[in-house]
Every structure is written in C-alpha cells, then in structure tokens.
Amino acid sequence: MRTLKDKRAVSPVIATVILVAVAITVAVAVAYWMGGIAGMYTKFEKVEILSAYAPLDTDNHLWNVTLVLKNTGSAEATIIGVYINNMPIDQFQPSDATPVTWAWNDPSNNSAYTPLGYDDSITIESGQQVTVYLIIKDPSQLSNPNYNFSSGTTINVKLHSAGGMDYVKLVELT
After folding, report:
1. Are 158 and 80 within 8 A, CB to CB?
2. Would you kindly state where each structural domain of the chain is located, as residue ranges?
3. Do residues 83 and 167 lie in contact, with contact meaning Cβ atoms separated by under 8 Å?
4. Least confident window among 25-29, 43-47, 84-88, 140-144
C-alpha cells in the first residue's frame, strides 16, 4: 500500500508560473471591463464655430447670418436655443414682417434650408459639420422694429446646448 509520502506535487516553479498567469489574465479582464465603464462616463460635447458671416440680401432686405458648426467632441451635441445679444431669438420678431428665424441644412435632405421654430433643436453627431442660418429682417424696412441693427453692427450670437454649454460668436452684419 502507498502512503502520502510517495505522492509527488507540482514543483514550486511551475506553481508560481501558473499563479502569475492567472493573475495577469484576471488583471487584463478587469482592465477591459473598467475601461468600458469609464468610456461611458467620459463622453463630452464640444461644438466649434468654424466660420460666421452675415451678408445683407438687398433684394429681400434681410441678413443671412451663416454659422458653420462642427462637433469635435465624443458625444452628440443638441443645440436647443439661439440668442442674439443675449436675448432669445424669438424676441426679435417684428409684428409686420417675417420674424427672425433660424434654420439649418440637413445632410440627409437635399433642400437648402430646414426651417426651425424657437422650440426646435439641432442634433449634431460627433464629427459632423452643419450650417446654421439665422435670418434677420433689416429693421429699416419695418414700420415698428423692436431692434436696431444696421450694416457694420456686430451682433453676439450664442448657441445653447442641451448639455448646458454656450457657444458664442461675434458676427458683423455686412
């Protein structure tokens, strides 16, 4: 009959190699898992205003303020409000003319403008570039204007996002 003394165990070197391999495998699995969780919480929006200009359309007596935006963040950005000189865009609606409006070009749509109401929003995916248009009526053509813009005036255009960020650009009306 054999006793316990006759049984052989795994050598200490082999046991150490096995323990180190298991520890490394578990550490790599935990690192991938934590990286996935951290990635969900580190997304951010960042909208850059690449260009802004406002030529006067003399035929229609309005300025077409054109803003080219690009989302350089890692999450989508939703523009929910537009302000001119820190006043909501709907405050610039004259009673006797087409109101100040905003619109944008939709890449999935072939039309030049997609008109938006004051309560509408624009969603910009990460890496996407869009053009936003603000149409402002020339107050000299209005009988009762509630704003005082003219060529050469610099206006402060602010876009407010659902994430609480404000993107500001000074634009000269030309």
Report:
1. no
2. 4-41, 47-172
3. no
4. 140-144
